[in-house]
Amino acid sequence: MSGVFPPGAAVALSLSFDDARASQLEAIGILQEYGIRASFYVLPASVAAAPDRWRVVALSGHEIGNHTRTHPCSANFEFSRANALEDKTMRDIATDIDAASQVIQDFLDVQPKTFAYPCGQSFIGRGRQRRSYVPLVAERFVAGRGYASETGNLPDRCDLAHLEAYVIDGLDAGAMKSIVDAGMIRGEWVIMVGHDIGQRRPQTVPVWELDRFCRRVSQDDRIWIAPVLQVAERIQSIRQAENRG
């Protein structure tokens, strides 16, 4: 598929952060310094705790995406035992997703157009009743972002409703840049996912490593850095034009 990347670019890079954690607001200046716009997949409760600050994030050109209202994951996670995907119906998930979009609209005046699967899991039910809820996401959003993947996304082949994404929590700048370099060889769209931004601890992107990484990628004209929505819409537009042709 030609024309996805801007002239001279060999890879697309989307930085994304989940859960609307407070540390993301404290570190937003790093992205601003290097002119990088990211995608933030927020939880309504966290947005409601600091709506004015998240409104500034949205007005600064960063994407605000849907991450459900209650963050349901597998019952194998202790924190999700009472909100397990195995016990959900399609209606439950649809209601949860739609409620999150409504809260984001109410607080931030933003209609989310992309989605991130909590824990990267996109199923409901058990055994013979287990089903994918990817179709619900495809009906509502331009794109759905996965989690903890081992590959990037090939623009001419990827499923926009369930995109691959690398976890960058705990990685140093060199390791993050190596992922982008590998994506450049294959002409991929590389999506990265972090949570907290700060000192080294679980589910945290070290703040100094994020700064080093942003500086390096922002200086490389071969890397097109854009929010998930911007890249997804470009791919979608090209696919639609090719289908019409």
Describe the structure in your own words.
The protein is of the alpha/beta class and 245 residues long. The chain has one domain: Alpha-Beta Barrel (TIM Barrel), CATH 3.20.20.370. The chain is built from eight helices and twelve strands. It has helices spanning 22-33, 44-49, 51-59, 90-108, 134-140, 173-186, 207-218, 228-244; strands spanning 11-18, 39-42, 63-66, 114-116, 123-124, 131-132, 143-145, 166-167, 189-194, 196-198, 204-206, 223-225. Helix 6 (173-186) runs parallel beside helix 7. The radius of gyration is 17 Å and the shape is globular.
Considering the chains and any ligands shown, give keywords for the structure.
single chain, 245 residues, alpha/beta, TIM Barrel, six-stranded parallel beta sheet, 8 helices, 18% strand
**CATH first level:** Alpha Beta
Assign the structural class, choosing from mainly alpha, mainly beta, alpha/beta, alpha+beta, or little secondary structure. alpha/beta
Query: What is the oligomer described by this structure?
Result: single chain
What is the level-2 CATH architecture name? Alpha-Beta Barrel
Number of strands: 12
Gross geometry: globular
Count of distinct structural domains? 1
Q: CATH superfamily membership, which one?
A: Glycoside hydrolase/deacetylase
Determine the strand fraction and express it as a percent band.
15-25%
- CATH fold title: TIM Barrel
Q: What are the secondary-structure elements, in order, as H or E?
A: EHEHHEHEEEHEEHEEEHEH
**Integer-rounded radius of gyration:** 17 Å
Largest beta sheet, briefly? 6 strands, parallel
Estimate percent helicity.
25-40%
What's the N-to-C terminus distance? 14 Å
Q: Tally the helices.
A: 8
Chain-averaged pLDDT: 97
Low-confidence stretches: none
